[in-house]
Amino acid sequence: MRLTVAPGTRVERLAAHLLADTPDSPFAEELVAWLAASGRFRAWADVHRDKIRKKLRTAAGPDARLDARAELAVAHRLVEDRHVELAWEAYGAQRGGPDFTIVYRRTQRFNLEVTRLRRQPDETVVASALLVKLRQLPPSVPNAVLLAVDAAHATGAAIEAALRGLRARADAHDDDFFTARGHAGTKEFNERWLRLGAVYAWAERATGPRATMTVNRGARLALPEKGARAVLRALDAPD
Questions:
Q1: Under 8 Å between Cβ of 234 and 78
Q2: How far apart, in Å, are the Cα atoms of 76 and each of 127, 184, 204?
Q3: Dist CA 8 CA 195 (whole Å)
């Protein structure tokens, strides 16, 4: 459905800018609804207006468009907490850093990388996703990965199993396993493993619990507890 927005209200002007290159975006109406319903999200989107426009323009194909939507949907929820300051691609889009940097109550800073799983979240799928995302987590700052899943409810079971399985592989010095998946053996995996503070699962359309958080007890830097819980509450909040 083609969305038509005329330059009138602030929402319409912002939406026209964001969607200028992609007026037929399948979630254009949803994005406009988010802008209209939330002044906080509207202000955030205005700050990042050019990034959002580019993100939508360069999302080629249905899966890429759904990936872009997942990032914006997470931002839409997180900024509703007035204690959250949310920076997007603070490390630069070309450097492959985490999607978001969160500052909670001005003192608790940590990163959040968002990825949408394109298959049902079993242990193998989760482990594969985490191995990719570990390469994007910087040192010296707490980091979390958020897995957006299309499921009836969010569960941490697959995440817990994936974390245990990866840890067992590393403890067994299974270099071939990690080398085949983009890491320079067990040593490099272990260094990156220390950067992962927690993993969230988010089932946006779940009828039961929408979000879980699984803590990596082996992380060098744990997520700040209150900030981590604030993210969980935002993800689990009703529409």
A1: yes
A2: 27, 37, 12
A3: 46
Residue 211 DSSP one-character state: E
Whole-structure pTM over 0.90, yes or no? yes
List, in order, residues 6 or more apart from 185 with CB less than 8 Å away. 175, 178, 179
Q: Return the pLDDT at 88.
A: 94
Helix (H) or strand (E) holding 201: strand 196-202
Distance CA(64)–CA(25), nearest Å, equals 12
pLDDT at 69: 95
Buried b (16+ CB within 10 A) or exposed e, 167-188: bebbeeebbebbeebebeebeb
**R_g of the chain, CA atoms, integer Å:** 18
* pLDDT above 80 (res 164): yes
- Among all chains, which residue has been given the structure tokens 């927005």? 5
Comparing CA positions, the residue from 171, 97, 108 lying closest to residue 134 is 97
Reported as a single tens digit per residue, the pLDDT across 59-95 is: 988 999 999 999 999 999 999 999 999 999 998 766 6
Cα–Cα distance between 8 and 117 in angstroms, integer? 38
| Contacts of 2-10 spanning 24+ positions with Cβ under 8 A | 3/28, 3/29, 3/32, 5/32, 10/42
Contact 227, 81 (CB under 8 A): no
Give the three-class secondary structure for 72.
Answer: helix
Contact 210, 203 (CB under 8 A): yes
Query: Which three-class secondary structure state does DSSP give residue 215?
Result: strand
The pair of structure tokens assigned to 201 is: 């699962």
Chain-centre distance for alpha carbon 65: 14
The amino acid at residue 115 is T
